[in-house]
Automatic annotation (TrEMBL):
It comes from Natrialba asiatica (strain ATCC 700177 / DSM 12278 / JCM 9576 / FERM P-10747 / NBRC 102637 / 172P1). The active site is at H323 (tele-amp-histidine intermediate). Its EC number is 6.5.1.4. Catalyzes the conversion of 3'-phosphate to a 2',3'-cyclic phosphodiester at the end of RNA. The mechanism of action of the enzyme occurs in 3 steps: (A) adenylation of the enzyme by ATP; (B) transfer of adenylate to an RNA-N3'P to produce RNA-N3'PP5'A; (C) and attack of the adjacent 2'-hydroxyl on the 3'-phosphorus in the diester linkage to produce the cyclic end product. The biological role of this enzyme is unknown but it is likely to function in some aspects of cellular RNA processing. This is RNA 3'-terminal phosphate cyclase. GO terms for molecular function: ATP binding; RNA-3'-phosphate cyclase activity. InterPro entries: RNA3'-term_phos_cycl_insert (IPR013791), RNA3'_phos_cyclase_dom (IPR023797), RNA3'_phos_cyclase_dom_sf (IPR037136), RNA3'_term_phos_cyc (IPR000228), RNA3'_term_phos_cyc_type_1 (IPR017770), RNA3'P_cycl/enolpyr_Trfase_a/b (IPR013792), RPTC_insert (IPR036553). Keywords: ATP-binding, Cytoplasm, Ligase, Nucleotide-binding. GO terms for biological process: RNA processing. It catalyses: a 3'-end 3'-phospho-ribonucleotide-RNA + ATP = a 3'-end 2',3'-cyclophospho-ribonucleotide-RNA + AMP + diphosphate. Residues 13-334 form the RNA 3'-terminal phosphate cyclase domain.
């Protein structure tokens, strides 16, 4: 293990702190030592999904690792490769751990790739405390593609809590990002409701009922409303999810490859909660967003910060949430200058990317 450059303390943070720290270590080509991993959780230390992220990034970056075991509360990670070779990889999280959160950690590494990369992950595609897969595919990826990220995601099986067993593939190509400027709200022209159910729930028409609950609760504001309900191949766990996608395109395109996504809001089916109420929960979050002026939703605010550290730019977010504050402090610990300032009912975050250090011999 190389000499540790960055000492990071996760005592007041959760899994996102760990994932972002490891991604930044790869991007900045710096070893890190993270103590008190997930220190503010009732069960601190590495769980299956965090271990999967650690092992995946270690493989991609040829990193030396210490602490790669379940329950570990201290992790040392030293990247061994300045550029990533790409190739085909497969990861089995082993539980209903989030596939989307694993992909989130890998996504920024497109800027370090020498050749295309394919990562197939088995785990939870639609589970609590993480973005549903449709949010990742239909909101986050289209937004980032507008700034130069070459990425796509496809799935072959959904995986719900508690068994997981879903399967999805992330495909990345070498990318150069443009500065991310997202300060002005553009009026959405369409709201698409993507509702999914496991086959075990199809006799109760859960997906359609979720979508109907969302459509009835939405304050559409002259937006076109489109329902997309589907019964999906899934693992043995019955489950459902609904995602509302606000779009700024002409409302005609429906592929996750198309641009124009503005924001997204999801909810997961729960035992004892009527399907209609699940859709209403997602619609309530969308209505609150439409009442504000920020161009991205509160969850995307945190997820964009790593990309700001790469390309620079400005993003106006609904609020400086705890996740946003923690991520900003983490960027600053890597020497990335971050500026936050209130603006009307939102907060503007501006980041200047750190220029590469000059070679000592020049």
């Amino acid at each position: 293990m190389a000499d540790v450059v960055r000492e990071l303390d996760g005592a007041n943070a959760g899994g996102q702190f760990l994932r972002t720290a490891l991604t930044l270590a790869v991007l900045e080509h710096e070893p890190v030592r993270i103590t008190n991993v997930r220190g503010d959780r009732s069960t601190p230390g590495l769980r299956h999904q965090h271990l999967a992220v650690l092992e995946t990034l270690a493989e991609l970056a040829s990193a030396d690792v210490s602490g790669a075991e379940l329950g570990a509360e201290t992790v040392e990670f030293s990247p061994g490769r300045a550029r990533l070779a790409g190739g085909d990889y497969a990861v089995d999280i082993g539980t209903a751990g989030s596939v989307a959160l694993l992909f989130d950690a890998v996504l920024p590494l497109a800027t370090e790739l020498e050749s295309p990369l394919s990562l197939t992950a088995t785990g939870g595609t639609d589970v609590a405390w993480s973005p549903p897969l449709d949010y990742f595919r239909r909101v986050k990826l289209p937004l980032l593609r507008q700034f130069g990220l070459a990425a796509a995601c496809e799935w072959s099986r959904r995986g719900f809590y508690p068994d997981g067993g879903g399967r999805a593939t992330l495909r990345l190509a070498p990318s150069t990002l443009e500065p991310i400027e997202l300060t002005d709200r553009t009026r959405p022209t369409a709201i698409r409701v993507h509702s999914t159910e496991a086959a075990a729930l199809s006799d109760r028409n859960v997906a359609h009922r979720q979508a109907e609950g969302a459509l009835e609760r939405l304050d559409a504001r002259d937006c076109e409303l489109v329902e997309r309900s589907e019964t999906t191949a899934a693992s043995d766990s019955p489950g459902s999810a609904v995602v509302l996608v606000l779009r700024i395109d002409d409302g005609e395109r429906d592929s996750e490859e198309s641009g124009g996504a503005l924001a997204g809001f999801g909810a997961l089916g729960e035992r004892g909660v009527p399907a209609e109420r699940v859709g209403e929960n997602a619609a309530d979050a969308a209505n609150r967003f439409l009442d504000g002026t920020a161009p991205v939703d509160r969850h995307m605010a945190d997820q964009l910060l790593v990309f700001l550290s790469i390309a620079g730019g400005r993003v106006r977010v609904p609020a400086a949430t705890d996740h946003v504050e923690t991520s900003c402090a983490l960027l600053e610990s890597f020497g990335v200058p971050v500026e936050k300032r209130p603006e009307n009912d939102a907060v503007v975050i501006a980041v200047d990317p750190v220029a590469p250090e000059a070679d000592a011999d020049t």
